Amino acid sequence: MELNEIIQQRKAKSAALEAKGVTLYPSQVPAHLDICQVLSDFQEGKKVSLCGRIMAKRSHGKATFMDIRDSTGKIQLYLKEDFIGKENFSLLENLDIADIISAQGELFKTHTQEPSLKVEECLLLAKALRPLPEKWHGLKDIDLRYRQRYLDLVSNEEVRKVFLLRARAIKAIRNFLDERGFLEVETPMMHYIPGGAAGRPFKTHHNEYDLDLYLRIAPELYLKRLLVGGLGRVYEINRSFRNEGVSTRHNPEFTMLEAYCAYANYEEMMRLAEELIVFVSREVLGEVSFDYQAKRVDLTQPWKRISFAGLVKEKFDISPADEAEVMLEKLKAKGFAKDAARLSRSQISKLMEDILAEGLSANPTFVTDYFTNLCPLAKARKNNSLISERFELYIGGIEVGNAYTELNDPLEQKKRFEEELRELNKDEKKTLDEDYVLALEHGLPPAGGLGIGIDRLIMLLANQASIRDVILFPLLRPEKTV
């Protein structure tokens, strides 16, 4: 049957119900229990009221069976003319799969021991004019799943589990940090100057102030201002935005955890990252090892450390003292970036990271010893100014986290910013953040900062290959209309 025909049939049923005095979309809902609550403490003979969406409907003469689902579970309803009356039973023929109803009655188990509700009263709460999809056909419907996530959630239990896991994981992150004295804060999402990370920003405009603003690419510089203000441990679970490419690991809008701790350094941030991710894994999975895309990931501590400087020296003969042009020529000599005319240091760094990441094991690995000239916000090592006190964390071959010992010398920070500006292409416009430098001039205590990609962490824990499968509403191109 064609979709338009189904919709017309459902509209006809709606009209028939209204003609019999049924309110299609009542505003008052009877008091009710969650289905999981009833199933976990199932008591035959107990009177209960439940609400949910009809997921299946089977008629057998003067009896009808329905399965309804709410956000917590599913249960079978048994409706019989003897129990609800002839007139009410006749209304059932106008109910369809996807309608939302309320059912009151007595709990019992069928001869196959299936928990069920013997319905004594049934009320329509919302009439669905469109049917649910019969089934998903894998990749053929992947775009529809993202565009109409509500249908995906209704129809696919595994998808619901992913987002329930995501919610539990974020709650676990908050609990972990709160118990360690970190204060959750909120910082602006609209910035005068894009900063705190490498990335192309989205631009917007404030009409009242006649002011161009940028959606944040990272909250880092505002969070460190709070350390200047005397808040010793802060974190933000933030939405950030980067106007760049999309991939299985990149979405223009994404969720990050950023945490900053006064009187700490990147070594302490390593321990914090280990303890945090192990804690979250135990909370949501009940264990510290799991499968990710046919790889076994083991979070048992301590985690492996490798040197970025050592790896790139071995693989590309690149040293931290090399200029960007020299780095690019050496990469080309090894067969990489052959068509690139010019790359910034950060682009070269990202290219090298991606190449090296392919050889990492699935188990957690801290990559340390990044070049100072690739890390404008990180403090250099005392015994080697060419190497920064920074790490990036890889798990399952995915970059999950990034951390520094924060640069708190205002003169050095201004110098780094100025060097960064000089390296920009002509079409890249950026302004030195004088206000952040001013904050540093008032004294930023020694500090460690940690960033963890929430979406990527959920990909690992939920064993999902694409970031779009862990974001409820990923950004997509608009559908073409004829």
Layout of secondary structure:
Elements: H1 3-19, H2 35-40, E1 47-60, E2 63-69, E3 74-80, H3 81-84, H4 86-91, E4 100-109, E5 115-126, H5 142-147, H6 149-155, H7 157-179, E6 183-184, E7 190-191, E8 203-206, E9 211-215, H8 220-228, E10 233-241, E11 253-262, H9 266-285, E12 289-292, E13 295-298, E14 304-307, H10 308-316, H11 324-333, H12 345-357, E15 365-368, E16 380-381, E17 384-388, E18 390-395, E19 398-405, H13 410-422, H14 434-441, E20 447-453, H15 454-462
Parallel strand pairs: 3-5, 6-10, 14-15
Antiparallel strand pairs: 1-2, 1-4, 2-3, 4-5, 7-9, 8-9, 10-11, 11-20, 12-13, 15-18, 16-17, 18-19, 19-20
Which regions contain 5 or more consecutive residues with pLDDT less than 50? Answer: 136-140
Oligomer type = single chain
Q: What structural category characterises the helix and strand content?
A: alpha+beta
**Alpha-carbon distance between the termini?**
23 Å
The main pleated sheet reads as: 8 strands, mixed
Rounded Rg = 28 Å
Supply the CATH class of the largest domain: Alpha Beta
Mean pLDDT: 92
Principal-axes geometry comes out as: elongated
Counting structural domains, the number is 2
The total of beta strands comes to: 20
